[in-house]
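User: quick one, fold this
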Amino acid sequence: MKARGPGQSPLLLLDVAAVIDKQGIDYVVIGAMAAAVYGPVRATMDADALVSVGLTKLKQLQGALKRAGLSAELRQGDDEDPIRALLAVTDKHRNRVDILAGLRGLDSNAFARAIEVPLYGNPLRIVGREDFIAMKCFAGSQKDIADARDVLKAATEPIDIDLLRRLSMRFGRSAADALDQLLKSE
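Assistant:
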């Protein structure tokens, strides 16, 4: 489903997800679009996905996206960066999808915990709720913590607190502390 103008990054995400699937790469949608599945919707002009592949496979994905008519700029993080690489995908309307690769601390089972949500009749894999909250605690900005708080408050099904604590600890002490603060305030 092609975007027909600016402000349609979710449509671009559908096209990007189709290319990712054809490459045999597992992905999960993160960021504001995942937040909207679990809690309140907030305005955003981009979409984010996470993949767990090495640099060689990421470069192959970059080529496939370019062959699909999209711009795909690869940026590599340094040793201190929690994100090993980012593929910034844009279309002719300046819609944007960021594909993050190699998130330090991510549990390898995060992709298995993903849920499938339809968007315009097409399935998208959304990061699991506990993984989402833990990632937001790791990111740590005020907006990220607010997203995590909103998802905790909006939960209609029980949250697996033990899993959430383990996932947060994988991201380090500051993520675990941020989660503890959130849980205390609930």
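User: anything notable?
Assistant: The radius of gyration is 16 Å.
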